[in-house]
Amino acid sequence: MASNDPLSDLEIREQSLAHTRDALAALQKVPAAGLDQPKHETVTDLVDGATSLERQLANEVEQIRGGDGE
After folding, report:
1. CB 57 within 8 A of CB 13
2. CA-CA distance, 11 to 17, in Å (whole number)?
3. Which of 4, 23, 39, 47 could form a disulfide with 35 if both were Cys (CB 3.0 to 4.6 A apart)?
């Protein structure tokens, strides 16, 4: 039972998805409306980027899980 076994593509994407969701949840807690305009835009851009990444990773996980049967 070696802990150095390489991760599968699915495991890598699942871990990436979980961490992206954690980051997105943290970003969504930032009170951006109370920040000045440049910082508000930065937070909004980060949320948009994380949301896009989350969607892409979720699609990849779904494709890997169900891709063999399609």
Report:
1. yes
2. 10
3. 39
